[in-house]
Amino acid sequence: MHLIDTLFVAYGVGISYGVGRRILRRMRLPTLDKVEKTVFAIGIGLGVLAYLVFFLGILGLLYKSAIISLLLVLTSFFPWRARFPRMQKINLKSFPWELLLFLPWFSLVFLAALSPPIDWDGLAYHLAVPKLYISAHRIYWVQFIHHSNFPFLMEMLYTIPLIIGMVDACKLFHLLFALLIMALLYNQLRKNSRVGGVLALLFLTQMVLFSWESTIAYNDLAFSFYVLLAFLAFLKEETLLTGLAIGFALGTKHLALSFLLSLLILFPFYREGKLVWRWDGRTIWRRVGTLLFPAFLLALPWYLKSYIYTGNPVYPFLYNIFGGRLWSSEAATAYREAQLSIGTGRDILSFLLLPWNLTFHPEKFFDPGANRFFAMIGPVFLAFCPLLLKEPISLLFIALSGIQWFFLSQNIRYLLPILVVLPLPLAKGLNRLWKKPFNILFGLILSISYLLHLLIFGLIMYPTFGVALGREDREEFIGKFFPSYKVFQFVNQYLPLDSKIALLGEPRGFYLGREYMWADPGHHTLIPYKRFRTVKELVESYKRMGFTHIIINQEFAPGNPLSDNPLDKLLVNPSACPYIELVYSKARVYLFRIK
User: Which of 507, 458, 408, 449 is closest to 122 using CA atoms?
Assistant: First the structure.
């Protein structure tokens, strides 16, 4: 089964490359070398494929037959006539043997990526929303999941394997973007020397965060790839390509707006490969237009969809400006406070200490309660940061983007595009210093750090290796790490098909085979909790909305025993509620039938 998933992703790479290559040929980009053309083509092709799925969904054509037909049509772009070098013609001296150094990293990441999805956001919306779209055969407003109004380029790619029944291929698609990032970084630095290429990848693999992201079905690596692609195109002064890349980034995350702003600020002052302090007013507006036009066109579908559904193009953000249906000022405030709670503050001292705190206190920049090692980025970044002074354009881009990240949300996952760009100037600067005897010292530091992070990452992901290798049952593995799964299995097996379930403390509905809704306050205003005075009124409201059952995960929704709020009273002791009946429970997850 894993072989089929892997081959399917390889097939997706092939057709994406074919589509992207056609587009690049029409753009005529003489500054790109063969590797860049290949990687850029795959990235652009994957973006085009995602948009084609999006338009199928808008037209109500999300059927298995339609997706297969689309893939068959795109097969005509597959590079069937690609010529592979014969073994005897390969120059063994120029072969990149140094990449074998990263084979252990790839082996660990690939194995972990073959395990079933158990990550939070993947089960809550990255995979769950495409599954809902597939069930409805169309893209629609999933009113109880505000994330469904985010730009969804990566989720459209996930829709393809999901509709065919290849769940594990979703994680492999995300891993693919990690490999594309590595290919770009390695190629950029290898132009100077082999050592430079290795150094770039050694910096990248210092991050447990990057490695972990390579094993899950999120969208951060796709976002980081398109930002990196946009920055490299910007350095080559390929303005149209920069606009395409940042447009795909805008189609992946709202945060791409901050990177677009950074590029626009730098744009007038970068010409002929260097910073200039006088910009040409005669051509600058034409160049800016060339950048913004494709970026705007690629961003428009997502922001227009959000505006049509909710009245807010960046829903649920900027509620005080745009408003938004099924949202409230209280929810907006809580959402912003949750973002501001991550990090070390937004004063000048926190900003100055940011490199130190990111290195030695990474848990402060990650989701509360998560494993602190997931956020590790490696002390070598801090040690070699002074090398940035030799690369002013990279320094300015990183600084401008980093300042915006600092004030918007200090979640380290949102910093990943900057961390992916960082190896470029750091490896380039270190390569200049790669002389005896310092190269031995630098090589020893990087090697030890690489092995240490490999060990930490291997220990974190070790529980996934058994199921990936077929030594552990898939269902048992999911149930072990996702306690609600056993309850979901009961629901899928025994509850009537027309059941509708209110989820409290458990938004991860991907494995649930019945209609459901996030019922916790703060996600939407579909349930008017403020109006209820008693638990009876609350349950009766659930019943009027068509709910037949309630699932409560008390680990995340324990209720407040000191509160008079009806929902808190229900959550504190749901078994004592006379209006619902316990049907099944596992660990602290309970299934109740509404009487």
Answer: 507
